Amino acid sequence: MKIKLIIISIFIFCNLIANSFAQDTIRYERILDEALKNNMILKNELLNIDMVKGEYYKTNNFFPKLPELDFVYETDKFYTNNGNKLFNLTLSQEIEIAGQFSKRNAVSNYRIKKSESEYKVRNNEIVFALKSVLNNVITSQLKLQIADEVYNINKDLLFNSDKRLKAGDISQLDYNLVSIETSNSSVILGKTETEFKNEISALNVYLGYEPAKLFYINVDTSYRPVFVSLENLKKSALENRSEIKTKQYEKLASNSEISLFKSENIPSLKLSMGYSNGTTIIPGDDIIGDHNITKIQDSDKNLNFGIGVNLPLLFNGLFDFNQGNIKVAEVRSKILENEIELIRKQINSEVISAYNKWENSKKNLETLRINNQVIENTLDLLKKGYEKGEINLISYLNEKQKLIDLKLNYIEILGEYNQSLYELEKATQTKLF
User: Fold this and answer.
1) Residues 149, 155, 156, 157, CA torsion sign
2) Rounded distance, CA 310 to CA 316, Å?
3) 135-172 pLDDT per residue, tens
4) Residue 281 β-bridge partners
5) At 89, is the pLDDT very low, low, confident or very high (cuts 50, 70, 90)?
6) What mean pLDDT is predicted for residues 196-202?
7) What is the torsion angle, in degrees rounded to the nearest 10, for the CA atoms of residue 118, residue 119, residue 121 and residue 122?
8) Residue 170 region by backbone torsions, left for phi larger than 0, else alpha for psi between -120 and 50, else beta
9) Euclidean distance between CA atoms 87 and 303, whole angstroms
10) At 227, phi and psi to the nearest 5?
11) What is the spatial distance between Cα 271 and Cα 279, in angstroms, rounded to a whole number?
């Protein structure tokens, strides 16, 4: 009676598991798209690009300064109508003649390209992290399918063993062993389900879903051979990696800054246009002694054009701040050059490490793949052999477990193979499959 109660409990428990996994199936590509679209880090990087573009619009004007408008009104007429009155209006504009505008434009454009490369760096890192999480989910999903398959095999075996026990075809010992095997497979199924839920929960963080949301991933899990050479991968990495491009654009911006700072020592022109209106009123008798003339009024109206030169003062230790800017930019350029060389070496090392891992997992996978193709048929033959009495129960259970271990090992190696490809993609910033 106890054994039958255990069987019923196992059946109910596994039905609950099956029902809990009757969830939606989401395509692999859709998951990638949604995760990248909802990622807050990438959204901030895009905003950073907009901010750098804002700096470009703020500083990259053809005229270095706004036009200046001077208004002067002077008079010494306080208590009488006699005296002088002057009205003067001047509009001036400074104009650079050493191409400073194009140099500022170059600095800003390189900074924008740098921020765009930084976005690609973050995108490459996040895609790798996301694919790694997806790989864990898919591996866990495949293990769950195997655990469910093993449980169903044992459940059928237990059902048939119950009938055979009643018919006297098997011993109580064999029946007990089958019952224990079925109980153990239900426990493994429960643990595998928990692992799958945990992996899905980690994926939900990237997708912005509720942590408890469950779904299957619709993806082709068959072996996908990839043919690459180490030299081509290293070449692609040095051409494509955005970390290198980020430093290169910053170095170009620094070089443009050096030219800009030097050009600022060249005089700039200042064009001006002015209009003045002056009036002088004096008593007439003060000049000609004629008391019949009460006053004399004289008005002058002038329209003036002027050209000036804005000369920087280059006194050592007083107005040589631009020399300091030039030195800083030159040193920064040399530092960036060293950093670029260091990044190149690090990337080469990353590619070699990822390639070696991929090559090893590929060999292991191709070896196990041949065995994996005949496992299902062998499991079926073992079951029929036991039912016909051609092999005993212990041999059947042992051989069955070996085959299941092979299937699980194949899934582990397949996960390692895919992960090594993702690492190669990250190291080269190139889609390989």
Assistant:
1) positive
2) 19
3) 999 999 999 999 999 999 999 999 999 998 998 888 99
4) 83, 297
5) confident
6) 95
7) 120
8) beta
9) 12
10) -115, 110
11) 27
Q: How far apart are CA 379 and CA 400, in angstroms?
A: 6
Note the pTM of the prediction, 2 decimals.
0.76
Angular region, 83: left φ>0, alpha ψ -120 to 50, beta rest: left
Domain 229-267+316-433: top CATH class: mainly alpha
Burial of 196 (0-12, 13-18, 19+ CB in 10 A): buried
Q: Residue 295: what pLDDT?
A: 56
Enumerate helices (H) and strands (E) in the chain, giving the number of each.
10, 6
CB atoms within 10 A of CB 57: 9
pLDDT digits 0-9 by tens, 93-115? 777 776 788 888 889 899 999 99
Place of tokens 């199924």: 189
Length of the chain: 433
* Phi, psi (degrees; rounded to nearest 5) at 229: -120, 150
Fill in the amino acid letter for 374. V
Domain ranges of the chain: 229-267+316-433
Would you list the DSSP string of 254-282?
A: HHHHHHHHHHTTS-EEEEEEEEEEEEEEE
* Cα(329)–Cα(23) distance, integer angstroms: 59
Q: How far apart are CA 104 and CA 49, in angstroms?
A: 18
Q: Quick one: pLDDT band at residue 19, thresholds 50, 70, 90? A: very low
The whole-number average pLDDT for the span 110-121 is 93
